[in-house]
Amino acid sequence: MNRRQLTLLGLFVSACLFTQPASAARYDLQLGNFFNATCNATCAQQNFEDLMRELGLATGPVFLAPAETLGLNGFSFAFEGSIVPIHNDRDYWTLATEGNPGGVLFIPHLHVRKGLPFSFEIGAQLSYVPESEIFIVGAELKWALNEGFYYIPDLAIRFSINHAVGSKDFELSTGGWDVSLSHAFGIGGMLSLTPYAGYNMLFVHASSHVVIASPTFTTPMDQMVFNEVNWQDNMFHRFFVGCRLTTYIFQITVEGIFSDNSIHMFNFKLGFDY
């Protein structure tokens, strides 16, 4: 990275850190609230599993790029955003946020990618859940099985993984693989429009730290640990469609991700490739 890119990265991280209030924010999730006078250990475990699945789907890897790679010397730097409607009326959200969940999560991302030989590409991503101390770090590897032919769509497969850090109550990882198709069309000799679509198999894995139960919980133990949410039992089908508009090195991308668990994402990107 050059000095300008490092400065932008520093500004992004600083903005995320210094916008947090000193007290617990809305999405500093309090999982101990699942243990209360009206919810026994079985009920609390179910709330934990449901929350981790939904949060995992909301913070899972995004795509925001067609199947083509950047090329051997290519580099991409982008600011991205995800808008994710959540089931904020469910118990696992109202208890974990102490009755104050919003209806939509907005998650900003900083995303860099680098082209490699033989149509490979690597990438890294840093995301932040606003009104919380949760950051998501991610990595990806993409390989274009076919790209650059005039009449044949580009085809690529990608492997990705994200991990949430900063929560005092849980560990959360998401990842999987996806396959995508895309084809670029020139517009007026100055613009390039590239629609793309694909399929993603996403896994969610989560575990809890020791959490402090509500004082109203009747079991003698006041410290609890939830059972793991295993990735083998929590795999989800996601489908995505998007379109990238490119002029010179600047690009705008919009995308929708639709899952079989009714958690859908609407993403956008402002970035440049060179």
Tell me what the structure shows:
With 274 residues, the chain is mainly β. It has a single domain, classed as Beta Barrel (Porin), CATH 2.40.160.20. It is 15% helix and 46% strand. It contains three helices and 13 strands. Strands 1-2-3-4-5-6-8-11-12-13 form a ten-stranded antiparallel β-barrel. The chain has a two-stranded antiparallel ribbon with strand order 9-10. The protein is elongated and about 70 Å long. The two termini are 12 Å apart. The relative contact order is 0.20. About 4% of the residues have low confidence.
Number of strands: 13
| Shape-level CATH architecture | Beta Barrel
Low-confidence stretches: 5-9, 17-22
Portion in helices: 10-25%
When the domains are counted, the total is 1
